[in-house]
Amino acid sequence: MKIIKIKEAKSSNSAALELFEKQDLKEGTVIWVENQTNGRGQNTNVWESEPGQNLTISIVLRPLFLKPENQAYLSKIVSLGLADYVGLFCSEVSVKWFNDIFIRDKKVAGILIENTWLGQKFNASIIGIGLNLNQEKFSGSLPNAVSLKMMTEVPFVLEESLKLLHGLIMTRYEQLKESDFKKIDESYNSLLYRSGKECSFVKDGEIFKAIIIKVEANGHLQLKHNDGRVGCYGMHEIKMI
């Protein structure tokens, strides 16, 4: 595993994309930014991380074998790798659709994937990961954030944690290389946050309630509405609240 450590950058993904344009980064290379000045999450979300306390990394993957219509599986296998890691230390670990890792009702990790393309084929995927390890205080705007140290009362060694996490994610990536989509879907849905329970969502500015059924192969969330209707929604169509 090659690690490129950077003292400070806007985000690990922005640093990784910049490096990728300048040099040939081999699959599995990790870009580790100690201090993110503008950490990003999905959509317009911000990722808060105290410098030197957590893992804010990007892993370079080259999924040239993957068809564009199956790109949701990248998020699934990274989510599963993260859940595998967190599950070594905590119980009640789940994956909140689409790419957050929860311990009970607290968020411990998030993912932001950015792809580069050669025509209609994958060139590279930059897998941005924020994992809260040792931070013990979060801003009031993040009331559900938690770290592994807060949950276990044990400090974590960042480099050791990174090596273990990287190995678990790459193991899940091998499942993807083998096109084991069924096993990936089964594993992902078995860990789906609030599966089978009624949750509130926002769509086009309106709030509605529905029961979470599963996440489909294309990454869409399947919901059962109060009138019995089943609907499927992409991550840009609805938001869980």
Question: What are the SSEs and their pairings?
Answer:
Layout: E1 3-9, H1 12-22, E2 30-36, E3 55-61, H2 72-87, E4 93-96, E5 100-103, E6 106-118, E7 121-131, H3 148-152, H4 158-177, H5 181-190, E8 198-203, E9 206-215, E10 221-225, E11 230-233, E12 239-240
Parallel strand pairs: 1-2
Antiparallel strand pairs: 2-3, 3-7, 4-5, 5-6, 6-7, 8-9, 8-12, 9-10, 10-11
Our count of helices gives 5
**SSE succession:** EHEEHEEEEHHHEEEEE
Uncertain runs are none
Distance between the termini: 38 Å
Class based on secondary structure composition and strand pairing: alpha+beta
Instruction: Calculate the mean pLDDT score and round it.
Output: 94
The CATH topology of the largest domain corresponds to BirA Bifunctional Protein, domain 2
Read across the widest sheet, the strand sequence of neighbours is: 1-2-3-7-6-5-4
Instruction: Give the strand tally.
Output: 12
What is the CATH architecture descriptor of the largest domain?
A: 2-Layer Sandwich
Rg (CA only): 17 Å
Q: Quick one: CATH class of the largest domain?
A: Alpha Beta
Major β-sheet annotation: 7 strands, mixed
**Number of structural units classed as domains:** 2
